[in-house]
Amino acid sequence: MFHSSESRKRPSILLLALLAIALITGLFAWWAGWKADRRMRIELLQQVELAAKGISPDHVRALSATDADLANPEYQEIKHQLMALRQVNPLCRFFYLMDRDAAGNIRCLVDSEAAGSQDYSPPGQIYAEASAMLRNCISSSAAVVEGPLVDRWGTWVSALMPLGDFADTPSPKLLGMDISAADWTKTIIARTAMPTGLLFTTLMGGFFYGLLRRTARRLRLGQAELSENEALQRLLVNNLPVGMVIVDPKTRLIERVNHHAAALFGAPMERL
Question: Which pLDDT score is estimated for 268?
Fold first, then answer.
């Protein structure tokens, strides 16, 4: 009865151990993903801050947010810079320079798209999807990363860097960089896959090691119990008041005799 109860409990214990491993791995993956997301946001801010330092404030002041900028050499210079910056970062999808006009509209000044691109934004195009964070950021001195957020072009994680030279002007400006939310998620997964996989492998290795030790212990106990049973059986057979001969039914060889059988046949036990 005791062994039957143990057998029923054992699968439950193993299942609980596997569930614990899954829970620990899942929590670690979530934590590692959160840490990777925080770190990537810091890196993104550093990149856009460095990019903002390379843009001449005088060139920005020369922009009018109208089609006249298309023939403006300062506009072309900034556009070439943004296109080059986009090429440097493989995750970057858009670089853009925006401002806020007198009516409070957020509008595009320059972007990193070629004029023939379907995603190209001409000078002065209103960005109606501007979030509250973007509107607050454009006139502040603090850079932020927001998202994932959806606009007409897709779903993005965006780094927003206000240009300090224009913070106190009627038309504050900011530099932004967008990364596709899908690429962002893939990068997080790539950064967390190795440590999470290592933890899972370690936990599963410990699980199987413990299972093997448990199995080995059960085998040793089983062998000890078998030896004990054989010794008890031998003792009982030898002390029976009648002769007994145990024969293997397949080989028909004598496996065991007791003292009475040996005396009956008149031969030592080891000869039978």
Answer: 61
Q: What is the pLDDT of residues 205-237, one digit of tens each?
A: 988 888 888 778 888 887 877 777 777 767 666
253 secondary structure, DSSP code:
-
- Nearest-angstrom CA–CA distance, 134 and 256: 93
What pairs with residue 202 in β-bridges?
A: none
Which stretches of the chain are DSSP H helices?
Answer: 2-53, 57-61, 73-88, 132-138, 181-238, 259-265
Which neighbouring-strand residues pair with 44?
none
Question: What phi-psi label fits residue 24: left (phi over 0), alpha (psi between -120 and 50 degrees) or beta?
Answer: alpha
* Residue 131, token pair as written in the block: 């979030």
CA distance 198 to 186: 19
Classify 258 as helix, strand or coil.
coil
CA distance 128 to 205: 54
Q: What is the mean pLDDT of residues 191-196?
A: 94
Collapsing DSSP to helix, strand or coil, 150 comes out as: strand
Helix, strand or coil, per DSSP, at residue 60: helix
Question: What secondary structure letter does DSSP report for 66?
Answer: S
More confident residue, 55 or 9: 55
Q: How far is CA 144 from the centre of its chain?
A: 24
Q: Residue 180: is its pLDDT beyond 90?
A: yes
Determine whether 94 is exposed, middle or buried from the number of CB atoms within 10 Å of its CB (0-12, 13-18, 19+).
buried
User: 60-72: per-residue pLDDT in tens?
Assistant: 999 999 999 999 9
Which phi and psi (to 5°) does residue 240 adopt?
-70, 140
**Residue 145: what residue type?**
V
The DSSP secondary structure of 82-121, one letter per residue, reads HHHHHHH-TTEEEEEEEEE-TTS-EEEEEESS-TTSTT--
**Phi, psi (5° rounding) for residue 244?**
-140, 135
